[in-house]
Amino acid sequence: MTTLTFAQMNEASRAVGSPLFADLPGDIGVSFEFFPPKTEGMDKTLWESIETLRPLKPRFVSVTYGAGGSTRERTHNTVARIARETGIPAAAHLTCVDASRAEIDDVARAYWEAGVRHIVALRGDPPRAGERFVAQPDGYTSSADLVAGLRRVADFEISVGAYPEQHPEAPDSASDLEHLRRKLDAGAQRAITQFFFEPDTFFRFRDAAANAGVTAELVPGILPVSNVANLLRMAKATGTSVPDWMARLFDGLDDKPAARQLVAATVAAEQCRRLYAGGVRHFHFYTLNRAELAYAICHMLGVRPVAPAQELAA
């Protein structure tokens, strides 16, 4: 069981006894996840979102990845452009799916040559829905295997995934935590969690991970909800619990996108605020390539744009 420090107890009391977002100091780190655009319009939206979030000085931004030539190429181009043009530390997702070790190593080397120093190493989902992951005969067999392989390629910073409600394929929580520990022991620096909606879900996971010997940083993944139907599909695939109250809260907002955005930002910001009260100081936002929700949540958490003069003085 996590023992709260006096500061955390004071913070928890403040969170209950005063307006949730009053005068927060902004002492948190944020990171953002994007997916590679498929069309010219999506590309425009992505870069507008990156430019909107850029003044918040994210610790990094990551770009998702799928097996196969075109998706792989779009991911590489997007990550390389972020690294080249924005000055934001860029992280590329990399998976074990449908590729040999040599092919994956070549992709990793290309990232390094493009100036990308951070990889989010994942096993990856099977390319066809309903199938189970099967490693290529000459491929990486797991995310822990991939992390070890990346360590041999270059001195990457490596993040991995974690499931606060247990990976759908794990037989039990103990084996799931053991697999997480193996990924970190192989050389990863942190784990970013799958999205969840109850702060206690993360706190229980953090306690269990600590009891299992995990000492690395655990970063909660935050998904602001704007489309409940899409959320329910994603939650089913990832084994994520969706509170009954959430669907009721968004009921009646299908044809009111502006109101839906306000509700979504409020719900996610409160979730982050309660995580903050429990000592969390880094949040990873699944943006779905839209900046508005993530920016609003960061603002409520006290994160403000960093002016150039402030950057020089830091």
Any idea of the CATH class? Alpha Beta
Helix content: 40-55%
In whole angstroms, how far apart are the ends?
37 Å
Main sheet: which strands, in order across? 1-2-3-4-5-6-7-8
What's the main sheet like? 8 strands, parallel, barrel
Radius of gyration: 19 Å
Quickly count the domains: 1
The CATH topology annotation reads as TIM Barrel
Percent strand equals 5-15%
* Structural class by helix and strand composition: alpha/beta
Number of strands: 8
| Unreliable parts | none
Overall shape: it is globular
The CATH architecture category equals Alpha-Beta Barrel
N-to-C SSE string, H for helix and E for strand? HEHEHEHEHEHEHEHHHEHH
What does this protein structure show overall?
This protein is an alpha/beta fold and about 325 residues long. The chain has 12 helices and 8 strands. It has helices spanning about 5-15, 40-55, 70-85, 100-115, 145-155, 175-185, 200-210, 230-240, 245-250, 255-275, 290-300, 310-314; strands spanning about 30-35, 60-65, 90-95, 120, 155-160, 190-195, 215-220, 280-285. It has an 8-stranded parallel β-barrel, surrounded by 4 helices. Helix 5 (about 145-155) links the parallel strand 4 and strand 5. Helix 5 packs parallel to helix 6 (about 175-185), helix 7 packs parallel to helix 10 (about 255-275) and helix 10 (about 255-275) packs across helix 11. The model has no long low-confidence stretch (mean pLDDT about 90).
Question: What attributes does this structure have?
Answer:
314 residues, eight-stranded parallel barrel, TIM Barrel, 12 helices
